[in-house]
């Protein structure tokens, strides 16, 4: 099981961002229905959404926001990309961790990696420029996904390219090129790509939580932020 493997190697991971995710400038942000400030927010307006993120950070005297793993979020109602609720169960269960920070912050690989696949998933509310890296520990292959990147560095990456642990390979992207979101990194772990290339669900139906939680274990096994415990 990938979770047990990652737990055994907890001391081997480098940072995913050159930020102190355990410091006092970090706050856990809530984008579920439990946050009453989301009820009146215009989430389709990305600039207004960005102001909401800034306000949430200010409430906590923070400059970096983290959170989201297995959070049942209301913010995906902003985009039809996540499914019409009147016809079928919409996707609202977040499978990664988001780190809300400034555009331009470098993104690093926490382990030696090979570029598995790339795509510019440019639907409104989608990942935007996306990188999926392949890793191996104890002969077990697994993957990490990085969404909402800048196109500038993303354009020069190539499938099969090797990246050393701690090497910067991308940056957090600005909107609208990042899928039209306030700047943040979506970081996700994946046990099996199931033939997918350059894209992988980052949001699932809540009724399928157990299936997706096993396929996509907690990214904080790598990030190791006390704010996500």
What would you note in describing this structure?
The chain is α+β, with helices and mostly antiparallel strands. The chain has a single domain (2-222), classed as Glucose Permease (Domain IIA) (Distorted Sandwich), CATH 2.70.70. Helix content is 16%, strand content 25%. It contains 5 helices and 12 strands. The chain has an 8-stranded mixed sheet, with no helix packed on it. A two-stranded antiparallel sheet has the order 3-12. The longest helix has 14 residues, at 46-59. The model has no long low-confidence stretch (mean pLDDT 92).
Compile the SSE list and pairings.
Blueprint: H1 2-8, E1 26-28, H2 46-59, E2 64-67, E3 93-94, E4 97-100, E5 106-108, E6 113-121, E7 128-137, E8 140-147, H3 151-154, E9 162-163, E10 168-171, E11 184-190, E12 203-204, H4 209-215, H5 220-223
In short:
This protein is 16% helix and 25% strand. By secondary structure, the protein is α+β, with helices and mostly antiparallel strands. The chain has an 8-stranded mixed beta sheet with strand order 1-2-4-11-8-7-6-9, with no helix packed on it.
Q: Assess the beta-strand content as a share of residues.
A: 25-35%
CATH homologous superfamily annotation = Glucose Permease (Domain IIA)
Largest sheet: 8 strands, mixed
According to CATH, what is the topology? Glucose Permease (Domain IIA)
Mean pLDDT rating: 92
Rg computed from alpha carbons, rounded to a whole number of angstroms: 16 Å
Number of strands: 12
